């Protein structure tokens, strides 16, 4: 699909349809955010959680993070994804582990569940929220569904990263900007950077933040 076609889709359809179109029409290994191995996220999760902790992956797409955690015998994974196609792909791929994984085919801004999580993971969703109202709605959901003492593992484009992704504007973050936005409800534990290889041969700068709910 050409650039001009994506722009038309973006303008004429909802976010739900837009992302489903991407997962339907593009090779999942060729989307810009694809990782063959989610090394930083996986290492951090393994260091701060145990196999019985409830973990939510926001914007899970078709990431292998869930596969990797299931290999480590994690029992309570939840995958939230706006694209039905991505959810169906994951259900098929993880069909032998459906008792350990709960799927939410939802927009994070309208997410509601009777559960609190020990860890909330978000790689490359939050930075798509360019309006303050949407950012605040997201943070309300985070505070509602994350246990006291729970961890927020967030990855966004760094200030040196791109200004757009998949033809959509994004917000770039450093540690000062994200801690100011989250306020006193969260304590920054650590941060690191990553140079992510784009399928077209270029690179994208990401920042990772690990925060704990106070």
UniProtKB/TrEMBL annotation:
InterPro entries noted in UniProt: Methyltranfer_dom (IPR025714), SAM-dependent_MTases_sf (IPR029063)
Pfam families: Methyltransf_31
The protein's name: Methyltransferase domain-containing protein
Lineage: superkingdom: Bacteria
Record domain Methyltransferase: where: 51-158
């Amino acid at each position: 699909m050409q650039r001009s076609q994506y722009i038309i889709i973006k303008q004429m359809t909802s976010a739900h349809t837009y992302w489903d179109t991407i997962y339907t029409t593009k090779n999942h290994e060729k989307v810009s955010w694809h990782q063959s191995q989610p090394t930083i996220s996986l290492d951090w999760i393994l260091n701060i959680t145990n196999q019985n902790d409830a973990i939510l992956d926001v914007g899970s797409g078709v990431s292998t993070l869930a596969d990797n955690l299931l290999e480590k015998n994690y029992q309570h994974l939840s995958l939230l994804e706006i694209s039905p196609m991505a959810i169906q792909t994951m259900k098929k791929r993880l069909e032998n582990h459906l008792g350990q994984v709960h799927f939410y085919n939802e927009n994070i801004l309208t997410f509601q569940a009777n559960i609190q999580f020990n860890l909330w993971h978000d790689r490359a969703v939050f930075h798509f929220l360019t309006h303050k109202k949407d950012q605040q709605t997201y943070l309300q959901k985070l505070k509602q569904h994350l246990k006291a003492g729970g961890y927020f593992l967030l990855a966004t484009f760094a200030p040196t990263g791109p200004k757009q992704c998949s033809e959509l504007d994004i917000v770039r973050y450093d540690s000062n900007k994200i801690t100011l936005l989250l306020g006193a409800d969260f304590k920054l534990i650590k941060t690191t950077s990553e140079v992510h290889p784009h399928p077209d041969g270029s690179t994208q700068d990401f920042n990772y933040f690990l925060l704990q709910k106070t």
